[in-house]
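During the reporting period the student researcher (J.K.) took over the structure-prediction task from the postdoctoral fellow and processed the backlog of single-chain submissions. One of the processed entries is reproduced below for the supervisory committee.
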Amino acid sequence: DQGTPYALSDLEGVTHIGSGSYTTFAILEDGSVMSWGNNSSGQLGNGTQDPGLTPQRVVFGPALP
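J.K. obtained the following structure tokens:
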């Protein structure tokens, strides 16, 4: 847990930012999405349940039916 805000030095070109339950997402100028946070339910979209302490690119797969 991070109780106080801190700067993310490797995250540039952010156009939008949003957050959920212990998770944060950023949309970049090129349309890509970065995520970081708890990930206990796989909410970071990286195929794991490992916490993401630094921003990582979300990889989109095929749409669900």
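The committee noted the following: The chain has a mean pLDDT of 83.
J.K. will present the remaining backlog at the next meeting.
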